[in-house]
Amino acid sequence: MQAFPISDALRQHPLWASLQAEVQAGDNVIAAASVDLNRALRFDAGLLALIQSGHGFRLLALGADGRQVWPVVSGMTLRCHDHAGLGCLELGTALGREQHWHFTLADQLGVTRLQDAFAQSQDELAGKPQPARADDAELCPTCQAPLPPESEECPTCHRELHTPPSTWVLLRLGRFAKPYQGQLLLGFLLMMGATGATLVPPYLTMPLMDQVLIPFQNGQPINTTLVGWLLAGLFGAALVSWVLGWAKTYILALVSERIAADLRTATFEHLLGLSLEYFGNKRTGDLMARIGSETDRISVFLSLHALDFITDVLMLGMTAVILFSIHPGLALATLIPLPFIAWLIHLVRDRLRTGFEKIDRVWGEVTSVLADTIPGIRVVKAFAQEKREALRFKEANANNLAVNDKLNKTWSLFSPTVALLTEFGLLVVWATGIWLVSRGSVTVGVLTAFLAYIGRFYGRLDSMSRIVSVTQKAAAGAKRIFDILDHVSNVPDPAQPVPFDQARGALSLQGVHFRYGSRAVIKRLDLDIQPGEMIGLVGHSGSGKSTLVNLICRFYDVTEGSIRVDGVDLRRIKVADYRRHIGLVLQEPFLFFGTIAENIAYGKPGATREEIVAAARAAHAHEFILRLPHGYDSLVGERGQGLSGGERQRISIARALLIDPALLILDEATSAVDTETEKEIQKALDNLVKGRTTIAIAHRLSTLRKADRLVVMDRGEIVEVGGHDELIAAQGHYWRLWEAQARRAEEHDEGEGLMVVAPNPNQHTVAA
């Protein structure tokens, strides 16, 4: 069994020397992977290796638990699952899970190789034949593993194989074309007329040659009347072809642009309806590329290339009929290259299709670098990481270039080969035609017309072969679009929703359980919240507070149990109807590019200026807004650039106030501002929470003193519920949090009281 490549990073692992010491004479390290988390999910060095010796395989684990070895026997499994950047590798036997290891996805490639090697060891133990690896096989540029024959993707790097796009996916665009079927039918009829008109001139060359030019060379006078009619026919055919061609091109271009616009709109609307879980697994740049460049590519395909393809098919069909009507023998000679061209198209089609989808994915990586870097340019400059980001973009762009170069090798050979085959076919027609003329079977005029038709026939054949490329590009783009449209939201609307026009704000959580993948985040949670009550959620980071808020907002659905609002299960209410009654104030308020007034009125676009100003006054934002150059009409930069954190937060509070929500969610609303700004925000929050059911998360426990009840969470469970004084007296979890925070505050105050006085460079005095 051949070993998998070991990366340079793995050879620098702290335990690599220990692994080498374990390798005995004659042993072979088949694969190795780094596991960098211990049982408590804290970083710790660990190493797994599959070793082959003369008597079989063994799995070796080195790490915090010391040295562990498992002889590999038939029936063992090595499974991996991951979620949110954390992975778990499980060794299983017939009796169940034998051992497991946690790791970040930093060495996901190493883990994948280890799984592949383990699977191959099981095949070998079961006596299954192992595929031979050719020494001259092409290597994957990422992992240096041999690529399978006739494959452009490494199965090791791309464990989740992408379903190759099929050309038939383009037929799914039919539902977007249905509203324009009348215009499409008109365009098709105009196309047939234009194509038919272009076939008239070659046919008129036969009488021009046989009845005018050749008789004239033999001494007969020219029939000017016949010449006039023939020239008029040529001009009329050209004029009709121009008019019909212009009309069909204009109509079909308009239709294709509208189909693409509808596709773009439908994709974006569907994307907005998907749950947060979908966006957690996608990169912004990739989604932007799909909705932007992919729909543009489909539009170009529909307006130009699909039109050309249909025209080519009509031209080939009509030309073939005319050729056979003129001379069946010559027509058959014309078709000699067709089987070879069809075979060539079939040969390269799959490579082009998968290649173009790969190009789309790597281009998504390029746009993702831009989408990451440009919004975070302040952080990039603050840490002087311009060169690093430029290198990231350069590497992504180089990857894009490499993928394009590989595809161009195939395409650059395909087109000239088709041209060569058509030239060969033309040569056969010339030879056959000259032989037939010499025998008197056809006239020179017939051969001339035939050659004119042949030129158009082969020209269209060459054009159709080139359309293979753009068709596969469009198919790859359509597949990426339909990947979005086919995705079903994990937070669906009910088939028969319960009307929810008014909300009192009563919440009841019964047996709520929630998982991220296989990791339980909320466990057996029960909580009742009365209308108008203010609840403070406290607990260590990772205790499940934000997840609970996400469940209440129905950004996710519970795995088990139910959440009821005013006695109705959330899953029986339309998502939009429910969220209309929720006001959300986040730790990092998000403002859109636009005016201050537009941002305040985001949740209520029809709000009057008086309502906007009243909300701003209640949020203590009116005064600083008036100090801006254009007041409420001042433009806010992207993500609120130009405003301080406290100003952005007060605008977000005004935004929540304006919709007058029955349920208010405050997620660390004052944690990122200074003390003075916090006081201003707290005044605004006091106005906001009046008469509303409020759920507030805060790390500064002092900000929750006004809460009716405090709910203390730990590891996804509620461990304490009560008022501040009650929980302090109980000296439980909340008391420990309070004491720890008080000690940090005292240490901070003492640190603030120290200052360094340096009257001269040679004297340093520390004074309180």
Automatic annotation (TrEMBL):
GO terms for molecular function: ABC-type oligopeptide transporter activity; ATP binding; ATP hydrolysis activity. It is a multi-pass membrane protein. The chain crosses the membrane at residues 184-206, 226-247, 298-324, 330-348, 413-436, 442-459. PROSITE patterns: ABC_TM1F, ABC_TRANSPORTER_1, ABC_TRANSPORTER_2. The keyword Nucleotide-binding applies. Gene3D superfamilies: ABC transporter type 1, transmembrane domain (1.20.1560.10), P-loop containing nucleotide triphosphate hydrolases (3.40.50.300). It is found in: Cell membrane. Pfam families: ABC_membrane, ABC_tran. InterPro entries: AAA+_ATPase (IPR003593), ABC1_TM_dom (IPR011527), ABC1_TM_sf (IPR036640), ABC_transporter-like_ATP-bd (IPR003439), ABC_transporter-like_CS (IPR017871), P-loop_NTPase (IPR027417), Type_1_exporter (IPR039421). Residues 185-473 form the ABC transmembrane type-1 domain. One of its GO terms (cellular component) is plasma membrane. Residues 749-768 are annotated as: Disordered. It comes from the Bacteria. Keywords: ATP-binding, Cell membrane, Membrane, Nucleotide-binding, Transmembrane, Transmembrane helix, Transport. Residues 507-740 form the ABC transporter domain. This is ABC transporter ATP-binding protein. It comes from Inhella gelatinilytica.
